[in-house]
Design goal:
The complex is a heterodimer of chains A (about 140) and B (about 220).
Chain A (H helix, E strand, L loop, with lengths): L1 E6 L20 H5 L5 E4 L13 H4 L4 E7 L9 H11 L8 E5 L14 H22 L1
Parallel strand pairs in A: 1-2, 2-3, 3-4
Helix pairs in contact in A: 3-4
Chain B lengths: L16 H11 L5 H22 L22 E8 H4 L6 H10 L8 E11 L5 H8 L7 E5 L1 H8 L2 H4 L7 H21 L4 E5 L3 H6 L10
Helix pairs in contact in B: 1-2, 6-8
Classes of the chains: A alpha/beta (about 140), B alpha+beta (about 220).
Chain lengths: ~140, ~220
């Protein structure tokens, strides 16, 4: 059984200005001390900082659940954008240790969802389309 | 065996009007467990179908029967009470500051509920084995189960006015039982064949990034 840890910056509002801001660098020692195989990390917003904040620390032996779509926006990301982001991660993580995820849930709070079903499904479809391209290039 | 770049989700899925109605009715004691489970079964089937159509590699339940990703444990754990943030307002030391924080952060106090510790914590039933079994009936793909992490739960559940007493003298005392409950759950999920268990710790970032403002979110 695979064990993962998800960390983001809050997902209770669609207003970017009220959510938390800052990269993962200060959490690196905490992450590397954990007996966890995969870190499922928000990475689609500039508030999350860059992959280099954590890549050198976790890239060697952990999996990355890379956040590639924003659960709070109303249109699906282009697959090409997702492919480019995953290819950036290849600088620190090998292809077999990268998973693709949204940045967080689509409705962490039942009556305070941040998206609708049709957009959520379109975002999943963009991710699977990007995954097919990534497998062709880095299979 | 998963392909390279497996596609999955972090966990929660938008609730339909029907699901929200059922959650409200269940919370108010106007719907029995069997009726509620039937709605969750039906809605989870729709959520899993959407994931299958999109072609994801690891399927999640969508957390559709949960009030929120961590408060739902009040359905499963003795010694807890589901409380809206509005109810908790009366117990915080600085009510004005708490209200201002909710306002500033765009958090509706009546719509967000907390799993407050009110006594000795113990699982009445597993936290998410029902979600695992429900998804297993719907798909042959690997399944990821999501659980609130120990830090988030400890921080949210401890509300001194309600939590301090015979069962626990302080927060670390209660935390030991939170960890015990999560360890038991992990064992059950492993025994039931979960492929992936993800703990959610959304506010670890707050500890390291709210230093200047001393801001604290509601969780």
């Amino acid at each position: 059984m695979r064990l993962g840890l998800h960390v983001c910056r809050g997902n209770w509002s669609t207003r970017e200005d009220v959510l938390i801001s800052g990269d993962y660098r200060p959490l690196a020692p905490c992450f590397s001390s954990m007996n966890v195989r995969q870190f499922v990390l928000e990475y689609c917003t500039p508030r999350a900082g860059e992959l280099e904040a954590i890549g050198p620390v976790l890239g060697a032996d952990r999996e990355l659940g890379l956040g590639v779509v924003n659960p709070r926006t109303t249109t699906a990301e282009e697959p090409a954008t997702i492919v480019a982001r995953a290819e950036e991660a290849l600088e620190w993580w090998p292809a077999e240790r990268i998973f693709l995820n949204p940045d967080c849930g689509f409705a962490c709070f039942a009556n305070r969802g941040v998206n609708v079903e049709a957009v959520a499904e379109a975002k999943l479809a963009s991710m699977t389309s990007a995954a097919r391209t990534l497998r062709e290039r880095h299979g | 065996m998963l392909p390279r770049f497996p596609v999955t989700q972090v966990g929660s899925w938008p609730r339909s009007e029907g699901m929200l109605d059922a959650l409200r009715a269940r919370r108010l004691g106007r719907m029995n467990c069997g009726e509620f489970d039937a709605v969750v079964d039906r809605e989870t089937a729709r959520c899993v179908a959407a994931q299958e159509r999109a072609g994801v590699d690891v399927v999640v339940s969508g957390e559709l029967g949960r009030d929120n990703f961590y408060s739902f444990i009040t359905d499963k754990v003795a010694g807890t009470r589901l409380m809206s943030l509005a109810e908790m307002l009366d117990t915080v030391e600085n009510k004005a500051a708490f209200e201002e924080m909710l306002e500033t952060l765009d958090v509706p106090a009546s719509a967000i509920r907390n799993p407050t510790c009110t006594g000795k914590l113990a699982r009445r039933e597993p936290l998410a084995v029902d979600e695992l079994q429900r998804v297993r009936r719907l798909t042959g793909k690997p399944v990821k189960i999501t659980l609130p992490g120990p830090y988030l739960l400890t921080r949210a559940m401890w509300v001194t006015d309600f939590s301090q007493g015979e069962a626990y003298h302080d927060k670390p005392d209660m935390a030991a039982d939170v960890v015990k409950i999560l360890r038991e759950e992990l064992g059950d999920l492993a025994a039931q064949g979960a492929d992936f268990v993800q703990f959610d710790e959304p506010v670890l970032t707050e500890i390291v990034h709210s230093g200047e403002t001393k801001r604290r979110t509601f969780m």
